[in-house]
Design a protein that fits this description.
Six copies of one chain form a homohexamer. By secondary structure, chain A is mostly helical. Chain A folds into two domains: 55 residues, no CATH class; 69 residues, AhpD-like (Up-down Bundle). Chain A has eight helices and no strands. In chain A, helix 2 crosses helix 5 and helix 4 packs across helix 6. The longest helix of chain A has 24 residues. Chain A is globular, with a radius of gyration of 15 Å. Chain A starts with 6 loop residues before the first helix and ends in a 5-residue tail after the last helix. At the A-B interface, helix 3, helix 4, helix 6 and helix 7 of A face helix 3, helix 4 and helix 6 of B. Chains A, B, C, D, E, F: This is 4-carboxymuconolactone decarboxylase. Chains A, B, C, D, E, F: Pfam families: CMD.
């Protein structure tokens, strides 16, 4: 997933921008193939949105010092569970959490805890998304 | 904040229940004085709600293995920021996060990241709650 | 609170409309003085909004057969608790619930149950609104 | 649906706990086969979550005196409609409402009223979930 | 789509009511065939809900002077994107926006801007709904 | 409000960045003094958040062609009304809407329309914020 070889990078005039490059590498590190798929899926409708996710989301925010990537992904899984309307993004970030070293058990604990703050339905729907991702990756909680 | 000496414990028939005791000690560890205040504030209107926060929230959920308290508080700060309607609880858990070793910078990074998932207004309002808690405790980000 | 004597009715060309009259009487029955205050507060900024609350909210919806007023107010207290951003309206409808025969205990039980569906913060903030209304009316749960 | 014969009860060390037993019987009374299905669906991913739904949700909250089961289900249908992101749980509780004696018309009236508090889209999507449940059970509003 | 020839109008005692007629014509102007489909879909479950959408939604609100239809549809697309739980209604109103002269680019810009206020997931899910509607109509942003 | 003379610009290493400069001028054009106040209020707690609002919010998004500023502000007022938890930001953007030529009546119509999509409480609370802003500026709907 090198930015020089992938379609959004090639077609994007911002390609040589350091924010774009930093964001692209961070996105690849965190979300891997799933992140690439989100970026690709935007090319036909709103390619600049893909660029903002890379530049602002991953180049600016996820690249900041002060909070390690494991904690960032735990925070994101918690928030997407609590919001309730973001199942596709939650699945991407459950992949992301596992990619950066959060354990399957930690993902499940984070989601279960959300029952306290956002209610059981939000936590249940997130657990069912989690089960799909775990099945796809062949992992399971300890 | 020993359960034997504090009002909710004394007036509560569940006092000797091990879930209640475990929850009480976990609540004291995490939320300290601010947690006590929430419990006290419920005595006149819904004392069983205080009991459920202690038993289910802290005895069942926060006492689970599999996710350390630092990560649990980062998840909670993320979720309460994203929900947007829970400023009093967010302030309690910013205290809680700092109590269990999350740094002021990590709290701010967690909140800032929420701009990506819940929008800038939710993140801004959480930062203003954060500023209040930091002022009260005399801490500041590095 | 006869519509003929109150400002919104007098200044409103819809006054003789049967939907408006039915709505006005239903609003008076349910929300009493607090409902009147909401209607009055809209006169300087959006008087037609007051008219729609009366005509559509109370003339069309609350006047429908098929669900008694007690159940309607329990449903409304539940929803406003769960939404989290509607404390002023929740206070009006806690008054409304008590006005149509919901007991203080039933109001509190309805709110506490919302911890399951919308999380503890939403339920806690609603309980604190409830405490204010109960204090104002001098009532308390059994 | 006796707890002694069903898988979650058998595999669960909490089986003899009175809270668990009370919760299990209340869940069976309210949500019946649909509740069983939710509990079963959690066994592979987060079995303790199933236990908390039984113990806290149904053993603690739904078993409380002070609000009858019909009113509790009306409150839940209202809240799940208003939240908007909980269609699977809404369908379970439309079954639950009908199981404890709420009429089909009362379910529809509760949902329609939510247009006032959470907007028409939330109410419409809930009505479409309602139509599915009614079709499955072969019931219809009067 | 004349109200005299279409099922909801024929079966509805409110058919000759001027609010109903005004609303019906406004709904036809804005949402066209998609609006008709929503109205039809409610006939078997809650026909009065269809009537309220026509009378209150389109007869009262969308028929008001003071804000042109283009601006009204931009506001609606923005709100449905931000709410996150209303994809079917968002698709209807993307059709509606295009019907009243909002350009495909303006629809996309409105949705993209929501990333600032409701977060990237809400904006992304709305863009994917947008892509479906654009494909159905054979339009694309400039 | 020239970026060369105001504190965030001076203390900010990004000052000469064209995105920052474009964003700063756009923020000044749209939100004026109220926008400046938001930026200033972040200096003690999260100055980079202020920079992101300027660079991403106003430099990237609000500076895009394809949707005029009047429409952008109508979309923002609609979304902040619908979200319900963002009253401070809504007040800033009611100022912003009026600054770029949206009339007071158009602001009110946009907010009232949100009753359809987010419910009456969200619309009412926004109208009360609107009344404050109108009073502060000495304007009123026609």
């Amino acid at each position: 997933m090198d930015p020089a070889n992938s379609s959004p990078a090639n077609s994007n005039p911002a390609y040589n921008d350091p924010r774009y490059q930093a964001g692209w590498h961070k996105l690849a590190e965190v979300d891997g193939e799933q992140g690439q798929r989100v970026i690709d899926s935007l090319q036909g409708i709103a390619p600049d949105m893909a660029r903002y996710i890379i530049e602002f989301g991953f180049g600016d925010i996820y690249s900041r010092p002060g909070l390690d990537l494991r904690s960032r992904e735990i925070a994101t899984v918690a928030a997407l569970t609590a919001l309730g309307h973001a199942q596709p993004q939650l699945r991407v970030h459950i992949h992301g959490a596992l990619n950066v070293g959060v354990t399957p058990t930690e993902v499940i604990e984070t989601i279960m805890q959300m029952a306290l703050y956002a209610g059981f339905p939000a936590a249940l729907n997130a657990l069912f998304s989690c089960r799909e991702v775990f099945a796809e990756r062949g992992v399971s909680p300890a």
